[in-house]
Design goal:
single chain, Four Helix Bundle (Hemerythrin (Met), subunit A), Rossmann fold, 2 domains, binds 5-S-methyl-1-O-phosphono-5-thio-D-ribulose, globular, 14 strands, 4-stranded mixed beta sheet, alpha/beta, about 15% strand, 7-stranded mixed beta sheet, about 350 residues
Length: about 350
Amino acid sequence: MHTTIPVSLQHDPERLVLLDQTKLPESELFLYLDSRDSIYEAIKKLRVRGAPAIGIAAAYGMYVCLARQSYPSLEAMAHDFSALKHYFASSRPTAVNLFWALQRMQKRFDAELAMEGASQSSMLKALLEESSAIFAEDQAMSIAIGEHGLTLFDKDKHWGVMTHCNAGGLATSGYGTALAPLYLGHEQGYSFSIYANETRPLLQGSRLTAYELAKGGLDVTILCDNMASLVMKEGKIDAVIVGADRIAANGDTANKIGTSGLAILAKYYGIPFYVAAPSSTFDLDTKHGNDIEIEQRDGEEVVNGFGRRTGPIDVNVYNPAFDVTDAALITAIITEKGIIERPTTEKVAKHLLG
Ligand code: MRU
């Protein structure tokens, strides 16, 4: 697999270390961040991106910002914690892992605050533990998703697999979600030809997915987004597998713009459509996909991306970053706990809550 971990923590001094994904595939440039504005900017501008990685960055970011400050009291620290949490939460609206990670940090903060003899240093120790646990759990989650996902593939057959956006190692702290079964399978002698849709407008598919798969020695072919139908019709695709930014209680799944179109095409061509995501990507408070907030991004990303103007200056541009795939189009959702076939509200609840 690719070996670069996109988000980590450095000590003495405490800094959030991010691989600047806006610079890929040309260079692997690391950022060492210790201010709230630089961490917010990195999430907003997709220097770190992908639902699990955003959550880890926010959790480590909380710890770093609080560790670099000295407070007159724990109450003052609590006040700043709350302000910081709201600030980071306002960076991107769709990936629920961001809110999930911040909520975990909040719970840990509250628990420590209630402890007798709590101090600023005990609080920092607790926050370090919690953010490190989020990171470590994410690594374990990738492997478990990979193992469950691999059961959907057959070792004796050569598989053409399409993926969209980047749900690989660069979007997590480990093997990724959608790419995890492919990495594990590759290590175990399974045979894949992977088709990475380039993923307009920010090209996470060609810049990131193709980059990390090629680096890991897997066979990958880049497609323009509008080639998916042809390639499916040509019989080159046996399965589509994507990640998720938020999965509603009924299984409706928000993922990178263009995903729902692929699911519709896959159904037409009789190709299984899989979503791979950890349980932290489910949002049981959101009953239906229509209730998921879709991030709207600057139109300049569409008409002035990567240093070249490709549309007139004064024209309207629509740039939603995500769309929602109806649960009815999803063959199965793969999580670290197993597989939800043909997801429904009941199956999702049973899978997550037991
Ligand atoms: O805008 P991005 O690059 O953060 O979008 C990422 C995706 O849509 C991924 O598919 C999703 O977060 C899953 S990452 C394991």
